[in-house]
Design goal:
- This protein has a domain of 50 residues.
- The mean pLDDT is 81.
- 55% of the residues lie in helices and 0% in strands.
- It is built from three helices and no strands.
- By secondary structure, it is mostly helical.
């Protein structure tokens, strides 16, 4: 199970953020008169883009389990010999 849920979420939010940011940047200024001149599409597009990129970064950087980090530098322990009577 190598798929981290943050990767598809990051892709989805990044794509929506790009689309919304481009729409907000290229749309008519008269569209935002009802919102007191605030370009809501551009602002939320940037927010979605940043969130999506953050999810992508966190999804690509996987943390190792603590048990693995603690035992990574220890020398290997010798295996116990099995005799034929135990099998």
């Amino acid at each position: 199970m190598g798929l981290d849920i943050r990767l598809p979420i990051g892709v989805l939010f990044t794509l929506f953020g790009i689309v919304l940011s481009v729409f907000g940047a290229l749309s008519n200024r008269a569209l935002y008169e009802r919102s007191l001149g605030i370009n809501v599409n551009l602002m939320w597009g940037i927010v979605l883009l940043l969130f999506g990129l953050g999810m992508l970064v966190l999804g690509r950087k996987r943390a190792l389990p603590k048990d693995l980090e603690e035992t990574a530098n220890l020398p290997p322990q010798p295996r116990e010999k099995q005799n034929a009577a135990n099998n």
